[in-house]
Write a structure and sequence with these properties.
Elements: E1 2-5, H1 10-24, E2 33-39, H2 41-54, E3 60-68, H3 73-77, E4 79-87, E5 95-103, H4 109-113, E6 123-126, E7 146-149, H5 157-166, E8 172-174, H6 175-178, H7 181-192, E9 198-205, H8 210-223, E10 227-231, E11 237-244, E12 249-252, E13 258-263, E14 269-272, H9 278-286, H10 293-301, H11 303-356, H12 360-369
Parallel strand pairs: 2-3, 2-6, 3-5, 6-7, 7-8, 9-10
Antiparallel strand pairs: 1-4, 4-5, 9-11, 11-12, 12-13, 13-14
Helix pairs in contact: 2-9, 8-10
């Protein structure tokens, strides 16, 4: 059931929700949280579809906030609130309200959303695109216990990670971090199967992919070893190689769906590691509403620190290579000098032998003297 409201208020929207529930015969509210989606017209459909799919696991009231940009000065100084209320089959297992803000009311979206929140229920705010620099200080983000962003949708994802680290507040999370949950679980399980010490790690994936950077930072933070970041054509993460004292451990996913786990001394095995859609990612994030301390530790490790560690390892390798080359050159020079000494000694021995060897004339002179 859909109810369209033009030039409305938050009170009228609440009345429409009650009428819609009564019309479909479910007057009771059985939802567990409020999900606020802040997006634009271009991305609203995909975000709402993902939220509806996730609502099958987490029945919720979904509020989609769309700020419409006014074209003229007159439109910018006027305010209007339009809404579309969906209940029943059109809203998954919860309720959906699509709110479009026109004019000055766009700067006060929190005043519109606040009366529509479910009472005594957690609030999660999700920015599919164009997230604020500091989600916790955003007026809508200040209403939520959890704030979900996606650095993969940013224009400069790696730089966005650095900004997220500077403004991190407990309750912040990132779908780029959620995407690597299966990878972290698989790598942790692989290390549990061996009693070895990890000496180095290589993470391979697409360039400018924040999930690859987050996985590398997590490994560097947890294992306290150098982590090298290499590039591939994707899709997404393609491989993680861990050097251990017992041999290499490799998790390789070339096609984006099926991976191969190879542990030294064990047969290789195929593991399901498909790339998940947005609905699965949002559903995972809605399962927990407490701060993610592991994400915070990995984020604060820093992309710059990861790059510096990689440069230090590369510099150390160059120094070692230079030392080895210098030792080889010194050994070659010493061998050449020894060979030259042997040649001179051989020449001297030949000359001495030539002097001592008797000739017919010398024998005749010795006989005449006798």
């Amino acid at each position: 059931m859909k109810i369209d409201l033009t030039g409305t208020t938050a009170g009228d929207i609440n009345k429409a929700l009650v009428e819609g529930r009564r019309a479909i015969g479910t007057p009771a509210v059985g939802m567990v949280l409020t999900l606020v989606i802040v997006t634009d017209e271009e991305n609203a459909y995909d975000a709402l579809r993902a939220a509806n799919d996730a609502s099958r696991e987490h029945p919720s009231r979904t509020l989609v906030v769309i700020k419409r940009h006014a074209r003229t000065l007159r439109d910018r100084t006027s305010s209007r609130l339009d809404a579309e209320v969906r209940v029943g089959a059109d809203a998954g297992t919860g309720e959906t309200v699509v709110v479009r803000l026109h004019g000055e009311v766009s700067d006060h979206a929190d005043s519109v959303v606040l009366p529509l929140l479910l009472p005594d229920a957690p609030v999660v705010v999700w920015w599919p695109v164009a997230a604020p620099l500091d989600p916790a200080k955003d007026p809508l983000g200040a209403l939520a216990q959890r704030r979900v962003t996606d650095t993969y949708a940013a224009e400069q994802p790696v730089r966005e990670l650095a900004a997220r680290a500077e403004t991190y507040t407990p309750g912040d999370t990132d779908l780029s971090w959620t995407r690597i949950t299966p990878w972290r679980s698989m790598l942790a399980a692989a290390l549990d199967q061996v009693s070895c010490e990890v000496t180095g790690v290589e993470v391979e994936g697409e360039e400018f992919n924040p999930s690859c950077e987050l996985l590398a930072m997590w490994l560097a933070d947890r294992l306290a070893v150098p982590v090298r970041r290499t590039l591939s054509s994707g899709p997404g993460l393609t491989a993680v190689r861990m050097d251990t004292t017992c041999g290499p451990i490799v998790l390789d996913r070339a096609d984006g769906s099926l991976a191969t786990l190879s542990i030294s001394g064990q047969p290789a095995r195929a593991v399901a590691l498909k790339r998940r859609d947005t609905a699965e990612l949002i559903a995972e994030e809605l399962r927990r509403l407490d701060p993610d301390d592991t994400y915070a530790a990995a984020l604060r490790y820093g992309v710059e620190r990861l790059a510096k560690a990689e440069d230090a390892v590369a510099g150390l390798s160059e120094v070692v290579a230079e030392d080895v080359a210098a030792e080889e050159a010194a050994a070659e020079q010493a061998a050449a000098e020894d060979a030259a000494v042997e040649v001179v000694a051989e020449e001297a021995a030949v000359e001495e032998a030539a002097v001592e060897k008797p000739t017919p004339n010398s024998l005749a002179r010795k006989a005449a003297s006798k």
